[in-house]
Amino acid sequence: MMQVELTVNGEKRSDEVEPRLLLVHYLREVCGLRAANVGCDTTSCGACTVLLNGESVKSCTVLTAQAAGQQVVTTEGLAAPGELHPVQQAFRSEHGLQCGFCTPGMVMAAVSLLQENPSPTEEQVRQGLEGNLCRCTGYHNIIRAVLAAASTGAASAVAASTGAATTATAQPANAQAEVTA
Ligand code: FES
Ligand code: FES
Which of 75, 129, 148, 149 would suit a FRET pair with 123, their CA atoms being 20 to 30 Å apart? Predict the structure, then answer.
């Protein structure tokens, strides 16, 4: 076991975890945050997408230890309790979900996309979300939702909600982690 300190949705945490514990399992089982889903064993579905220092990552590919000392944001942390982030609002108003299983990952990928590109074209949205799969095949409305969010100027809310000043300061998921044993 090892002690890991990190910030999840603005809350500083210190937890004892197994070195092999994946971030998605840490979020779901230790933090009780169930938005990030596990939809595959092959790093292909994106249902587990969260933000690590403002950049979207598939949390099934990141060890909790790798997130030590860093900022993690899940869908639960995008807006104040009882409120919707502009991207979530757009998914709601454009009917960008069916069963909802892929939705948290889609929303987080969209947040990351709009942070990098506040006014994407439809093609750029499709490319930006290509790592996220929807088994209900609801892509048409998902793309519409992201474009709608962009048209309402959601990018500024995106930056505020993720705590990332700019993408240039964000660290990649495989950055050297700070771990206290
Ligand atoms: S659970 Fe499918 S990519 Fe992470
Ligand atoms: S809405 Fe069902 S998997 Fe996407």
Answer: 75
Helix-helix angle 86-93:154-162, to 10 degrees: 130
Cβ of 97 less than 6 Å from ligand 2: yes
Question: Atom 1 of ligand 1 has which residue's CA nearest to it?
Answer: 38
Given the CA of residue 134, which atom of ligand 2 is nearest to it?
4
Distance 104 CA to ligand 2 centre (A): 10
Q: Which of 53, 77, 101 is the last residue of a domain?
A: 77
The CATH number linked to 102 is 1.10.150.120
Supply the range of the domain harboring residue 42: 2-77
pLDDT digits (tens, 9 = 90+) for 133-146: 999 999 999 999 99
Name the residue of 60, 74, 134 whose CB sits within 8 Å of the most ligand 1 atoms, as the mutation to test its pocket. 60
Q: pLDDT tens digits for 118-131? A: 999 999 999 999 99
Terminal Cα-to-Cα distance of the chain (whole angstroms): 8
Q: Is residue 181 part of a domain?
A: no
Ligand nearest to the CA of 131: 1
Token pair for residue 24? 């998605």
Provide the domain count of the chain.
2
